[in-house]
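One record is given unchanged without comment:
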Amino acid sequence: MWQIVQTASPQLIKAGLTYTIPIAVVSFAIGLVIALLTALIRLSQKRGAFLILKLIFRFYVWVFRSTPLLVQLFIVYFGLPYLKIQGFTPNGIQLDPVFAGILTFSLNTGAYCSETIRASILSINQGQWEAAYSIGMTRSMALFRIILPQAVRISLPPLANSFISLVKDTSLAASITIVEMFEVSQQIAAQNYQPLIMYMLVAVYYAICCTVLTWLQGYLEKVTSRYVVTK
């Protein structure tokens, strides 16, 4: 058993550092940008043609929250090559596995995190807006100088949970041929015929990674809450 662990661990760690962690970090960073943009558009008070844009983003959130992540990965990687449009994509849309994974994870993360950010902004007392307006701030100035800094502290725990979930969800990338930790464990298990040991080992590495992220989450919560007065 220990010989298997010693032999497999370097390969799992390498796969984690090469694919699992980078894919999760890049996808979450892009997803946060998408989430913030989506939340701000959906909270916008503009009318007219802007309502169409709000409906598009609302539809985007609905689609990605209503369908399984694995199905989304399959559509992007295996389905898009069959989307053949004469004059535009005659050979379909063929994406690199890593790019397809990052694209899908980013869009999925953006949909979920947009609701977290939107709820955090809405949770700020209306008096904060009124106080900002009373000293001459515009809505944009109030949002970025007063509201968003407070919303960041409120949204930090659920956003950190989303990131931890994303790290675990990267194991689904094995289904589109990305050689991340879970895929490597499957390959090794097929060679040594010890699936129980291999899957328990990769579970331990995921647990270690998520434990470190949980500790980091707690640290960030303390930093962002250091000026909060508790009764």
